[in-house]
Amino acid sequence: MQGASTAERPKTPQAVFDRVAPYYDALNSVLSFGMDRRWRRETVAALGLVPGARVLDVATGTGALAVEIARATSGAVPVTACDTNERMLSVARARTDPAMRSVSLVRCDAASLPFDDDSFDAATLAFAIDDMPDRAACIGEIRRVLRAGGRLALLELSQPDHGVLRTGYRAYLRVFRAIGRLGYEHLEQEILKYRGAAAIEALLAEGGFVAYQTRSLSGGIARLHTADKGRGPS
Ligand SMILES: C[S@@+](CC[C@H](N)C(=O)[O-])C[C@H]1O[C@@H](n2cnc3c(N)ncnc32)[C@H](O)[C@@H]1O
Questions:
Q1: Closest CA to 134 of 39, 59, 25
Q2: Neighbours of 200 (CB within 10 A)
Q3: What's the 148 CA to ligand 1 centre distance in angstroms?
Q4: Which ligand 1 atom sits closest to the C-alpha of 60?
Q5: Residues having CB within 6 Å of any atom of ligand 1
Q6: What spacing in Å lies between the alpha carbon of 198 and ligand 1's midpoint?
Q7: How far does residue 13's CA lie from ligand 1's centre (Å)?
Q8: Tens of pLDDT, residues 140-151
């Protein structure tokens, strides 16, 4: 595992999400060779959901993870999925309406969630923490709306654990330059400036989360981080 880096990861501008929204899922699938579906399944499994648990998917984008939670739990778990980007949400709406009645979509800023304290049993945040203008505020808000002991699963792109694979992967990342017209060229830099699991662990610990665990997925191309809301004061 690589250590923490202090380098700032470039954020994806909202204008890029506006532009890529209709192709976002297909691009994810192609660029990850279909592995993104497995990563989402692993993320849902890490929450250990029981029927009736209330889940919040923050920065849901096109709703893929929210839908995976609904599917994996056969609709027995109500999912609230939120994002600030209307175009991404409109793709999520088309995908969840009308069959996925257990998924509700809300447009809001993750730094100011319009939900009551302690109102969710679990939360997810996938491929989005470094797009947040204020990461600490986002984590603080997720903590506030989770009940004590509630779990956060955070999924992120990272870099392969082993040197040879890492070198090959860095070469592969140049493919993002080829789809620069969509505004995806910065994704190469975003992945290269990966700050390491220690940076996520520190962010979560500072935000009042405990019992941090992490594991690499697909040899380290993605990383799943989990932590629980501590039982201290909100
Ligand atoms: C790379 S996409 C990830 C989408 C989705 N979670 C997934 O797994 O594919 C990042 C998302 O974060 C959202 N986002 C960025 N800043 C946000 C904010 N302040 N509040 C809520 N969502 C935000 C973007 O609009 C975008 O949909």
A1: 59
A2: 23
A3: 25
A4: 6
A5: 17, 59-61, 64-65, 83-85, 88, 109-111, 126-128, 131-133
A6: 22
A7: 10
A8: 999 999 999 999
Per-residue pLDDT reduced to its tens digit, 201-218: 999 999 999 999 999 999
Q: Which of 19, 28, 60 to mutate to test the pocket of ligand 1 (most atoms within 8 A of CB)?
A: 60
Structure-token match 């594991």, residue found: 215
CA 69 to chain centroid: 13
| Residue 25: both structure tokens together | 């899922």
Strand pairing of 209-217 and 120-126?
unpaired
Ligand 1 centroid to residue 52 C-alpha, Å: 26
Q: Where are the domains of the chain?
A: 14-228
DSSP letters spanning 173-202: TTHHHHTGGGT-THHHHHHHT---HHHHHH
CA distance linking residue 128 with residue 206, whole number of Å:
18
Query: Considering the entire predicted model, what is its pTM?
Result: 0.92
Atom of ligand 1 nearest to the CA of 40: 8
Considering the four listed CATH numbers 3.30.70.270, 3.30.70.100, 3.40.50.150, 3.40.190.120, the one that applies to the domain covering 14-228 is 3.40.50.150
Distance, in Å, from the CA atom of 27 to the CA atom of 23, rounded to the nearest integer, reads 6
Strands ordered across the beta sheet of 209-217: 103-107, 79-83, 55-58, 120-126, 146-157, 222-229, 209-217
Q: What is the pLDDT of residues 101-138, one digit of tens each?
A: 899 999 999 999 999 999 999 999 999 999 999 999 99
Name the closest-CA residue to atom 14, ligand 1: 59
